[in-house]
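Problem statement: downstream parser choked on a complex file, so we are re-checking the raw output for the zinc ion run. The parser issue turned out to be on our end (a line-ending mismatch), but while we're here, posting the original submission so the record is complete.
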Amino acid sequence: MKITLPTVIMSAAILSITACNRAQEPQEPGFSWTVDRFDDIKILRYQVPEFDSLSLDDKMLVYYLSRAALCGRDILFDQNCRYNLPVRRTLEAMYEHGTTGRASEEWAGFEKYLKKVWFANGVHHHYSNDKFSPEFSPEFFDLLFNSTPQDRFPDDYGTPEELAYIVKKVIFDPDFMPLRVNQQEGEDMLLTSAMNYYEGVTQQEAEQFYDRMADPADNTPVSYGLNSKLTKDQDGKLVERVWKIGGMYSPAIEKIVYWLEKASEHANPVQRAAIEKLISFYITGDLEEFDQFNIMWVQDTLSMVDYVCCFTEVYGDPLGLKASWESMINFRNNEATRRTEIISRNAQWFEDNSPIDPRFKKPEVKGVSAKVITAAMLGGDCYPATPIGVNLPNADWIRRDYGSKSVTIQNITDAYDQAAKGNGFLEEFMLREEDRERIEKYGSLADNLHTDLHECLGHGSGQLVPGVKGDELKNYGSPLEEARADLFALYYIADPKLMELGIVPSEDVAKAEYARYIMNGMMTQLTRIQPGKNVEQAHMRNRKLIAEWCYERGLPENVIEKVVRDGKTYVVVNDFDKLRGLFAELLREVQRIKSTGDYQAGRALVEKYGVQVDPALHAEVLARYSALGIEPYSGFVNPVYNPVMENGKIVDIQVEYTDSYVEQMLDYSRNWSYLPSKN
Ligand code: ZN
């Protein structure tokens, strides 16, 4: 699982500036955090502090792993929609080599569209899943297309006419593949989703295909379907096209493996064994090897350098089986890890004292390892939009038998905080001075702590009753799992135990978190939704579910209050203790739903509280938010690692910080692109 930022703009260090000045941004001397802005997106840089203090072997390991991290970008483009690669390549050719139209007003709309495609790794919004609406015309497209030398276009799709036809259809026909992932009740989620994990296969066929594979008696099932596309052969028989060397996506996987092999030469023996297992999985595509790799990986808690570099998260598949390719290369932040070590050392205490039914508690919490890391390179589904925390592996039985590794990515959070300084957000949406003060003082700690608790305890806690597989909740599984982890964090962030452990200096940390969480869940996260749309994304559904459920449940005692002042709506928490009680009650219920696989109850919760948007409130929030001029989403450009050579040998690696989003994207497309346009 990955955790994304609750609100892009929350930060401990938000300064009291009421007017927003987009040009002026507080920053550390010599380092500008923001490198680009377009549409609803802001592009930031992150720093890699302490890289210089790594040993040469660890630097080399980061360096080679980072190269592997860049090789899977095309895979994600193709996974998101099978036309993404031809679209990206065509637009890039026009952008770089088209000669007519640059002076036109429509050029800006064209450039913005391409920047959005890069950001989303495709033509659908990375968060809302909606296809982008172009702000340039088909006539402008033709003009630019026809002025681009033909040999600049991809030659592996068809004639230039065929290419132009399909690219224009994808861009300009709003009814063609409108949603990347459709989770609408009652519709065939596969036939109506643009994602490329299934082709020509109905939801029912796919569900039957994988139901038949699963053996109910198997206590350690592989992650069926994780690394393949499900389609049909000439005879109409269902077949999996496996992502492996010699299979689908082979050219990119070969490169990933090449760099992994280089990396393994600089790894310690424990790491090397795991990397070799991962390579072996890429060669065979055998999901048992994937499990073996994950077991080795999760047990390595001592190595300084760590990585994710595989098919990992299943959010992009409506059925939650098939994993997008992602990578995050990182190393431990020793200083900040002290906090998470204390938490994980006490994991059993948290499990024993949690408010859930004892039947669903883990008698023995295994190997909850938690650390704070510094991201060194982001790739695939972690780039440019980046999680702030990760908890892996995802297989329930590996988590049960071997535990999981949970990380909080502090240099990413820091970059968000720095870039958000003085944007006026809190002043606009948080009514009470006391709440704003608490958030300014403790918001950053509260955010990081919430992530620690969510990742290293929340996802790892609880158990399924015998006979429950973990996939019963289907499309409601992801939001409910996130709700479970969030509720665990929310419940415990206010526990006196945290003060006893010396992690939390004041009760105000929890109050800051509660006020922020409820405000976000009920109101401010709506800034990420287009007018007329409902909430689709799993983390957002989860936050809305929790906040709305607590609001309704707490109405008789006025626990949470909606206050309207000067025509503006605010959400105020009146009773923090009672709110904690509500979190406990909901956690108990969500855990019951997960542990027993109660699809009906899970569906009812999500549909009632997590999906429907109040249009009037939505419009108000959007108007107030847009007056601040803040982009609701952020992403990152990567640093560049340069080897320092002496007598033909690498003697050091130096970090350089990129300052151009466009240049980095063009560089990745030019130099790190391996897949054909049709896969
Ligand atoms: Zn999570």
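For whoever reads this later: The pocket of zinc ion is lined by residues 1, 3, 454, 459, 482, 485 (CB under 6 Å).
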